[in-house]
Design brief:
It is built from 19 helices and four strands. It is mainly alpha-helical. It folds into three domains: 1-28, no CATH class; 40-248, no CATH class; 253-475. The longest helix is centred in the C-terminal third of the chain and has 26 residues, at 417-442.
């Protein structure tokens, strides 16, 4: 021991010593602070919190994790122009009791992907955030501040429900009920409520600059999540219309949005592909082959520009945008495949299957080449990887897909990686069983059976139904 100014300092005390001298409660608390200490301290501007309500000793550390880790990697460019979580949502958390708890819920929920001890703090903060939202919804009238606060809360609650609550998901022995809970459709319910609030907000446009910037981000968030949700499963949205307006654009429509990982122009083209996929159910039968071919040319010719400050075309920003463009072409091929209900019933033109296989290879090779940089941010190319995985035919491609999913899941910060992998594997199992049945039928060993994938829009849609009617988030 050493002494200085009457303060005793123990030089040889280790964390294991605490296990001997403290009870389990203190030990768990010590471990909690030991883990959170790794993420640094709060910025000076985040040293104050809403005054009402009971506070936990670990709240500042959770807020620090949200600021230093989650916000830092939430977009491809971290500055006031491109990072809405740090510069729009986080300041609101210092004024709003509900957003304060929602922010801490996100931090704790992300941490529990690798440590189940954060489960209770995550649920407690989630409950308080949800209670605050319910209280706001009971008000007779809403001002600008209340509407912004409610939109922010619904956005954060949607984000919370996308994160897996069980860090053991990737274990192949995880039981089915746990997996079903991890892909529950509650985030889709929040997304629907988000749309209703956006409509109300559009009727009462904000006057402050902060409110206008929030409105633009909220519109982009909703459009991004809704369009990619519609590529995975049917979403019933009354009077469906994307809320993309000039004030929601970060720059030009062809500029890569650092939050989405691709441009607004590409998002609109992906939305057109989903319109083709669901056209028959929506009683739209006037789609001509020329319209489909024009859409394909637009996807092939689109030029996505780097955002300001990102001038190196070899960065992960350009690679992620290109992977998503290839994913959109792959989705169009799958939509027009003769085996999908949307194509077989509406006369959509079929494309060369070999071209689809080339898109799969390009996506996988691009992610393999740039994965080290891509994995540094939350803007992962999960959507194109998922599509490529579902369309992969050969064993070599499947091995590559599994390896990429395992590496992404190893980050332990993104809750939708493991369920996406599970859906892909279910698609493979169904496809292999069909191939086996076809072989038996050709040999005369069995009677032909109905193809269970023929009635589905996509093979992955059918797989999610079989897994318990999952609503998978690919954003």
């Amino acid at each position: 021991m050493a002494c200085s100014d009457r303060d005793w300092i123990f030089l040889n005390t280790t964390f294991n010593d605490l296990e001997i001298h403290f009870d389990d409660t203190l030990l768990r608390q010590a471990r909690l602070f030991k883990t959170l200490a790794e993420y640094g301290s709060l910025s000076p501007c985040l040293s104050t919190f809403p005054n009402s309500g009971k506070r936990s000793d670990c709240d500042p550390a959770l807020m620090s994790y949200f600021e230093n880790i989650i916000c830092s990697s939430s977009t491809l460019v971290d500055n006031a122009h491109y990072n809405p979580y740090r510069y729009l949502i986080l300041p609101m958390a210092l004024e709003s009791e509900g957003l304060y708890h929602a922010t801490l819920a996100i931090a704790a929920n992300t941490l529990r992907l690798s440590d189940s001890r954060y489960r209770l703090p995550a649920l407690e903060h989630h409950h308080r955030a949800l209670s605050h939202l319910r209280e706001l919804l009971t008000h007779d009238t809403w001002g600008e501040k209340e509407l912004d606060e409610m939109l922010g809360l619904v956005l954060m609650l949607c984000w919370f429900d996308v994160i897996i609550p069980n860090s053991e998901f990737s274990n192949r022995h995880t039981n089915e009920s746990q997996i079903s809970d991890n892909s529950r459709p509650s985030w889709v319910t929040h997304l629907s409520g988000f749309q209703d609030l956006i409509r109300t907000r559009q009727e009462r446009p904000g006057r402050s600059l902060h409110s206008q910037e929030l409105s633009g981000f909220f519109n982009r968030y909703f459009a991004f999540h809704l369009v990619l949700a519609r590529t995975a499963f049917r979403v019933d949205t009354p009077s469906y219309k994307l809320p993309i307006s000039p004030d929601s654009l970060v720059e030009s429509p062809d500029t890569i949005d650092p939050y989405m990982g691709f441009s607004q122009s590409l998002l609109l083209l992906i939305n057109q592909v989903t319109e083709l996929a669901w056209s028959k159910d929506d009683n739209q039968s006037d789609i001509s082959p020329s319209t489909v071919h024009r859409l394909k040319r637009n996807l092939e010719d689109i030029q996505q520009r780097l955002p300001n400050g990102q001038i190196d075309p070899t960065t992960e920003c350009a690679s992620i945008a290109e992977a998503n463009r290839l994913g959109a072409l792959l989705l169009l091929h799958e939509t027009c495949s003769p085996k999908t209900a949307s194509a077989s019933k509406s006369g959509l033109p079929a494309f060369d299957p070999e071209e689809k296989n080339r898109f799969v290879d390009k996506i996988l090779n691009l992610i393999l080449e740039k994965k080290a940089n891509m994995m540094r941010t939350a803007v992962l190319p999960l959507w194109p990887l998922f599509l490529a995985g579902c369309c992969a035919r050969g064993d070599e491609e499947r091995v590559t897909v599994l390896r990429l999913f395992e590496e992404l899941n190893g980050i332990r910060r993104f809750g939708n990686i493991a369920p996406a992998k599970e859906v892909v594997e279910m698609v493979w199992r169904q496809r292999d069983l069909l191939a086996e049945d076809e072989g038996k039928r050709q040999r005369g060993d069995s009677q032909p059976r109905k193809d269970p994938l023929r009635g589905a829009r996509f093979a992955w849609e059918h797989a999610m139904v079989m897994l318990g009617d999952w609503k998978l988030s690919l954003t």
